[in-house]
Amino acid sequence: MKKKLKLLSLFFVTLLIIPVITACSSQTKPYNSKGKLGSQINYTVTGIDAGAGIMSSTQKALKAYGLEDQNWQLQTSSTAAMTSTLDKAIKDKRPIVITGWQPHWMFTKYPIKFLKDPKNVFGKSESIHTIVRKGLKEDKPEAYTILDRFHWKPAQMSEVMLKVNNGMDPQKAAKEWIKANPKLVAEWTKGVKKVHGKSLKMTYVAWDSEIASTNVIAQVLRDQGYKVTIQAMEQQPTWAAIATKAADAQVSAWLPKTSGLYYKDYKGRFVDLGPNLKGAKVGLAVPKYMKNINSIEDLKNK
Ligand code: PBE
User: Fold this and answer.
1) Of 45, 121, 125, 205, which is best to mutate to test ligand 1, by the most ligand atoms within 8 angstroms of its C-beta?
2) Which CATH architecture best describes the domain 126-279?
3) Rounded mean pLDDT of 201-209?
4) pTM (two decimals)
C-alpha cells in the first residue's frame, strides 16, 4: 500500500510594522535657505570617530573661520552613524553639514557637495601613502617591493568599497577585485619571488577606504605566499605599531594634512613608500539642495 505523502502547507507570517511617527520639531523641517543655517542644525557639524584626521582638521576649520565663536561644534560619532544621519536628513530634505571625504561611496550614493575652503584648512587634494617599518626592505624584500609598487586609482578603490557597502565580506571583495584586475596586480608583483609561509603584519583603521585597500594588498601578499594578518585599531596605534616594529606595514596615511599630525610625531621611525592613491579629498560637505551654502564661510554668514 502506497503511503500518501502529506503536503506540508507553508504558512506565511505577516509582520506588522508599526510606523513610528516622530513628532514634528524644528529638527525635522526641510532646509530653509532664508533662515539662519546654524540655528536650523543646532550649530553642529556631524562628524565621525574622534581619532580621524578629518576631525582635527574640522576643529581647526571651526577656529579659522570664526565658527567656534558662534558656538559651532563638531559632533563625534562614527562613519556609519554619520552616513545614517545623512541618509535620513536627505530623505526629508533637511539641512546637515558633515565631514566628507573621497574616495567614499557617500559621494555616489547621495547628492552632496564639498564646501569651498578658501583658507585651505583641509588642503586641496591628498594622497594616501604606504608606510612600512624600518628594516622591512632587508627582512622581507619581496613584500617590500610589492608594497612599494602598490598603487591604484580612486575609482578602483571605490569598486571594492561599493561591494563591501553592499554587504560583501571584505576579503571576498578583495579577491573578486584582484581577479578582475590581473594586469594592474601583475605590475605590482612582476618578477617578485614567491615566499613560503613567511608572516606579515598589517595594521589599519576600519574606515571604508582602508578596509578596501588593506584587504586588497593583504590578499595580493597572501597570493605571493605570505601569511598576512590585518589588525584594525585606532589611528594613533597604527603609527606606533610601525614605529616600534610591532607591525610591518599600513597603507592608510592620508597626506599631507589628514594624517599629518602622526606623520610629524613619528617622523624618522618609519619608511614612507609614497602614494598608493592620488586624488583623495577631505573637507566639509552638504546636500546639493542647500544651494546657497557653497563655502565654509557661508556657515558663518548664512
Ligand atoms: N578619513 C578616511 C580618514 C582617513 C581615511 C578621511 C575619514 C581620516 O583620518 O580622517
Assistant:
1) 205
2) Roll (3.10)
3) 95
4) 0.86
